[in-house]
Design brief:
Layout lengths: L1 H30 L18 H11 L4 H19 L5 H8 L11 E2 L2 E2 L1 H15 L5 H16 L42 H7 L12 H12 L12 H6 L6 H8 L13 H7 L4 H13 L13 H9 L11
Antiparallel strand pairs: 1-2
Helix pairs in contact: 2-3, 2-6, 3-5, 5-6, 8-10
Length: 325
């Protein structure tokens, strides 16, 4: 009886070694190298240690263990995307769930995870448990926590495609149909009756609100080299300058358009040239929203005022990098 048991045990052991050999051989053929000691071609994400969870909880001020484990897993993706080992793309995409908006943040370059994008995912998870935090505050906090817990230099985040929301913004001014054609690509401004009528208005206060957004679109077109065929006797910037701070709600609405892209940031210079001349109570919220979204180039248009210098210092440790003029 004992002999039979020993025989069966030996057979099982031999079977295990055969399975190991076959799996290693297959992995070698697929990858051109030996597999890891865990018998996996790509080691799976591991559960974070209790010490790491405790440290993250302290730094992020989160006590929910389930949430901390989820945040820690995403931060492990950031770590492994920098230092390895390689991860299975299908495993990572499975973590996102059906509710993820693929346009909200770039997470992959091909099949390779982008660490900066996954830091944003971690920050979004933080806001699920700390809803009082702004997106900027959560991103700043999670980037600092990652650097402390994983003891490596965290990557800088990529700028958002549009500025953060300006709090307590006034209603968007409606567009007057008379000026809608200012927004069309075929508008060249040459002898246009409606445009000339605006320019001939003697009183700044009489300039209509319904022309604000079309004029802003036209301003951006005029600053675009591809739209050099626009011929206007009086520059759009001069006309918009006459609006003064009345332009505030239209500028906020234009920046909030989701079709805007970070590739166009430099084209906003003409708008920031106008904004920098406004009083602090209207100029600062727009500059702050831009910096909270990583639009660091906007500091080049800050006025030489005390509030502007303090704002620049406030964002010196921005998760997008320090804004430098």
């Amino acid at each position: 009886m004992l002999t039979r048991i020993l025989f069966y045990a030996l057979a099982i052991i031999c079977g295990i070694f055969i399975v190991r050999f076959v799996r290693a051989w297959i992995a070698t053929l697929r990858q051109g190298s030996e597999i890891s000691g865990k018998w996996e071609v790509l080691p799976p994400l591991e559960k974070a240690s209790s010490g790491r969870i405790e440290q993250l909880g302290t730094m992020l001020d989160i006590s929910d263990v389930t949430g901390l484990h989820a945040i820690a897993m995403v931060l492990e993706i950031v770590d492994r995307s920098i230092n390895g080992p390689e991860m299975d793309p299908s495993e990572l995409k499975g973590l996102l769930g059906p509710g993820h908006d693929p346009n909200s943040v770039v997470l992959f370059e091909g099949d390779s995870p982008l660490p900066a994008g996954w830091l944003v995912v971690a920050a979004d998870l933080v806001r699920d448990y700390r809803p009082e935090l702004s997106a900027y505050e959560a991103r700043k906090g999670v980037r600092q926590a990652f650097g402390a817990v994983f003891t490596i230099n965290p990557p800088l985040l990529a700028p958002d495609t549009q500025p953060a929301r300006v709090p307590n913004a006034p209603p968007v001014p409606p567009i007057d149909q008379r000026y809608m054609h200012f927004m069309f690509d075929n508008f060249d401004g040459n002898g246009d009756h409606d445009y000339e009528e605006l320019c001939s208005e003697e009183h700044d206060s009489a300039l209509p609100e319904g022309a604000m957004l079309p004029l802003i679109h036209l301003l951006i077109r005029c600053d675009n080299e591809e739209s050099a065929n626009v011929e206007i006797s009086i520059p759009v910037s001069d006309l918009l300058k006459r609006y003064g701070v009345r332009l505030f709600p239209a500028v906020v609405a234009y920046f909030g358009n989701p079709k805007r892209s970070t590739d166009e940031q430099q084209e906003y210079g003409s708008l920031f040239d106008l904004i920098c001349e406004w009083p602090q109570e209207t100029a600062e919220p727009i500059f702050r929203a831009a910096l909270e979204s990583g639009w660091n180039e906007s500091v080049n248009f800050l006025p030489d005022d005390q509030w502007a210098m303090e704002l620049k210092k406030e964002f010196a440790d921005s998760p997008y990098g320090p804004p430098e003029s």
